[in-house]
Amino acid sequence: MDEQAKKTALRGITYGLYVVGTKVGDDVNAFTANWLTQTSFSPPLVAVGVKKDTTSFEGIKESKVFSVNVLESGQKDLAFAFFKPLSRVGNKFGDIEFYTASTGSPILKDALYWFECKVVDINERGDHALVLGEVVDAGVHRTGEPLTLRETGLFYGG
Predict the structure, then answer these.
(1) pLDDT by residue for the chain (158 residues), tens digit each?
(2) Is the dihedral of CA 30, 154, 8, 147 positive or negative?
């Protein structure tokens, strides 16, 4: 296989950037993800790639729930904030406010839209697990254009 051609081809896949949250007991956690897609209309299912050696993945496996916060174009700093662990105090990650709804997973007040899922399957092959979730709740804070990975200057490509 031509390695450069493979990289170029895989870098042509478009991605959004999302903040995915979960909870275990009273503890909530969130991380930035971009490998996310809807996989079914009925029931509404989404799949997200989650790095396996993380607290977030352990939380998703234990709680069997997660939230997805769709960020707005221009919210690169918000996405980047969740690349690293943030301390939680009350209803804030650092100075980023959140609330909870049906599953107890964090919903960012500054996100465009959000939805919550219950886990229906997990495939743990590779360095990331593929988590399949059924959408059980959703909301819209405002309308706008979603943030994309390309806008940040980052890209993936095997």
Answers:
(1) 888 888 777 777 778 899 999 988 888 899 999 999 999 999 999 999 999 999 899 999 999 999 999 999 999 999 999 988 777 777 888 889 999 999 999 999 999 999 999 999 999 999 999 999 999 999 999 999 999 888 887 766 55
(2) positive
Phi, psi angle pair for 141, to nearest 5°: -85, -40
Helix (H, G, I), strand (E, B) or coil at 155: coil
Domains of the chain, residue spans: 17-34+53-118+137-145
Query: Distance from CA of residue 152 to its chain's centroid?
Result: 16
What is the spatial order of strands in the sheet that 45-51 belongs to? 27-33, 18-24, 65-70, 113-123, 128-140, 45-51, 36-40
Provide the CATH number for the domain formed by 17-34+53-118+137-145 in this structure.
2.30.110.10
